[in-house]
UniProtKB/TrEMBL annotation:
One of its GO terms (biological process) is translation. GO terms for molecular function: structural constituent of ribosome. SMART domains: Ribosomal_S10. This is Small ribosomal subunit protein uS10m.
């Protein structure tokens, strides 16, 4: 008998947007791409579990930082070492969510945040009529 993998290993099944009204954007950034992918997988699964329709993770421009350090002073001025640091960024759009559910979702992400992954949420609140 072939066992199916747990639901956590598979990609989350996206929920259909009811009205298509964006309520928040989740910006994620990290120096480690595998850690970033792991947290995106977690964030998408938790959003689906709470009934929040989401977009897939959209890759944003990777920030590249270069700098040069002199290995030795005085005589060894020409021996230099180059370093590079890449900051990988992703964005997830959240749609059609109740403000209470959205607040619960952000609190859940804060409680289970991974060290090394920065999370910033931009949310839009609708004014009542």
């Amino acid at each position: 008998m072939l066992e199916l993998p747990s639901r956590g290993y598979l990609e989350p099944q996206p929920l259909a947007k009811t009205h298509g009204i964006p309520v928040a954007i989740l910006h994620l950034r990290s120096y480690h791409i595998r850690l970033l992918d792991l947290f995106i997988h977690f964030a998408l699964h938790s959003a689906v579990s709470l009934g929040i329709p989401t977009s897939k993770a959209q890759p944003l421009k990777t920030q590249r930082r270069l700098w040069t350090v002199i290995k030795g002073p005085f005589v060894h001025k020409k021996t230099q070492e180059n370093f590079v640091r890449l900051t990988h960024k992703r964005a997830i759009r959240l749609y059609d969510a109740n403000p209470g559910v959205l607040e619960m979702y952000f609190a859940y992400l804060r409680a289970h945040a991974l060290a090394g992954v920065g999370v910033r949420a931009i949310r839009w609140d609708r004014a009542p009529l």
